[in-house]
Amino acid sequence: MGFIKKIDIFITREISKAPNITAMKSVFEPSTRQELINRIASLSPRHTAQWGKMNGFQMVKHCILCEEMMHGKIKIKRVLPGRLFGKMILKKVLKDDKPFGKNSPTSPVLKTTHESGDIELEKKEWIKRIEEYGNFQNSDFIHPFFGPMTKEQIGFFAYKHSDHHLRQFGA
Description:
Elements: H1 3-17, H2 30-42, H3 56-70, H4 80-93, H5 119-131, E1 142-143, E2 147-148, H6 151-168
Antiparallel strand pairs: 1-2
Helix pairs in contact: 2-5, 2-6, 3-5, 3-6
């Protein structure tokens, strides 16, 4: 059996071992943005956190701040652990469509100290930030933990982050 044939058999065998991976959702896809917008719009005061310390208003404010960071409106300095391990952890986080784990650490810059406010107004702001991914202009984005990210990585990460918090509140 020739070398090329052996490699072909090996690759075929390894691919067959791989789990079935569904396509990851990205905020750069219009249908995915619409899904997030519908879920954000469905949030109400009756939604309570299934985990974590934030209330609904704080979660929405946090997500707005995160979207502003992704769009380059907020800059956050890189942290040392991220410089050491960020790239490796980003690969793990984005390897499949598995949701983020519960109670992940949050940068203090992306936390709000306000306990309450007009959640309907804040939902509109979050939706506006989600819609802005249709004209994304921050290809030089550097995440404070994960470091430089490609546009594709940004799309997947932004979806997974929003999805994480919407799941947190049952939306």
